[in-house]
Amino acid sequence: QVEFVESGGGSVQPGGSLKLSCVVTGVNMYATGWYRQAPGKEREYVASITDTTWEDYSEAVKGRFTISRGGTRNTIYLSMTNLTPEDTGVYYCFAMDSWGKGILVTVAS
Q: Contact at 8 Å (CB) between 45 and 55?
């Protein structure tokens, strides 16, 4: 049975930082990562990492966000710095074609 446990979301001021975590069980971890969906917009790709730790980022977050894996390599992290209001949204963890329920990140003054 596939299970995702996402944590670390919340509210932060512009310029602040947050670190999201996602513990995944019951699914192949070859390709994992994060998408996000802002209010009124379509879900968009954020970043991904493979089991060989090859990383990829969208242009919108490159240089500000860092994806990594830890623990027994079934935990996916997203370290987010220099956050802007445009980063506000629900962040979804994925592993292969399975998805978490999402976690809210709000960036506002």
A: no
Q: Are strands 65-70 and 75-80 parallel, antiparallel or unpaired?
A: antiparallel
52-103: pLDDT as tens digits: 889 999 999 999 999 999 877 789 999 999 999 999 999 999 998 999 999 9
CB burial readout 40-73, b (16+ within 10 A) else e: eeeeeebbbbeeeeeeebeeebeeebbbebeeee
Write out pLDDT tens, residues 9-36: 999 999 999 999 999 999 888 899 999 9
CA distance 5 to 16: 23
Strand residue runs (E) in 1-109: 3-7, 10-12, 18-25, 31-37, 43-50, 55-57, 65-70, 75-80, 89-95, 98-99, 103-107
* Length of the chain measured in residues: 109
Whole-angstrom distance, CA of residue 30 vs CA of residue 10:
28
